[in-house]
Structure of Alkanesulfonate monooxygenase:
Amino acid sequence: MTQPGPLDFFWFIPTHGDGSYLGSERQQRPPEHDYLREIAQAVDRLGFPGVLLPTGQSCEDSWITAAGLASHTERLKFLVALRPGVTSPVFAARQTAALDRLSNGRLLLNVVVGGNPKELAGDGVFLPHDQRYEQAAEFLKIWRDLVSGRTVNFEGQHYRVENGRLDLLPVQEHAPLYFGGSSDAGQDLAAEQVDMYLTWGEPVAQVAEKIERARKKATLKGRKLRFGIRLHFIVRETEDEAWAAADRLISRITDEQIEVAQARFLKEMDSVGQRRMAELHGGRRDRLLVGPNLWAGVGLVRGGAGTALVGSPQSIAARIREYQAIGIDTVIGSGYPHLEEAYRVAELLFPELGLGENVRRPRRSIENEFGIGFYGDKRLQAAS
């Protein structure tokens, strides 16, 4: 174990919609730009350094959404998806340069290779699992040379480029590459090409084992990886309040919805990470507590990240420090609804983690309905 160091805590832009209940249309919020802008501006103000924008058939495009939000934020970084196989490496390099310039160097890249083969087929991608990662390795070599200002001549199994170049370069010399993949093929790609290796929120021992495998692979390549974790959060002032909120979040999910979702995760998808998520609970409501404060209720119906840290600020902070101790230095969080939960995380959890110190706060002398005014009453002032 390593001594915990500085922690980056990102948030999430719900470009596939948001709401108060999973599995229900009640109190749902569509992914309208004005609402997504509210979230982005709030987390920028609250001190989150960046946001993840998801990708997929049900999501608004992450690049266009990030471009729209960049002009409404000041410091916030945008983690958007590079999709080998879905787009060409040269076109992706042009997009990278344009968005990085537009945001003044606030672009981060999330390499997304896996997913549901049925959805990938809809995007025109028919390669089997391991070959997708081979294609991604070629994609990233071409992409990296282009955004570094080099002229590219490349001929591989999946791509051919003749005299490719960018005339307009990114602001950043090296925009960091993030990547999550639990398979051997995925970890091989991470070891060779990326900067930040991500995992979904598994119990600490399982995350430690996964990190160690990825670290060893990177060492054999003469490289070092950083590590991050993707988690939902349900943080309240007390444990009881938090667990009541967790129960409420899944209170409208039906058994039929769980059955359909789990069949899709285990039968349609070839993602090793998705299988690991599903196996934590097996689709059973009585097996949702998979570790201290680690709850798998979100994964009953949601693909991808399916676990949440649930509890008081103190207990959740303790769990995060356990992940830090095994090498995690970045958390990518989310919560339902994302606007309100961002405030709860920033106001309740950040102080426990020593985060948000540089956020602009009102002076103590400002009086409003949430404070006690001392208008001339020296006895009250002295008592304070």
Remarks:
- The chain has one domain: 8-383.
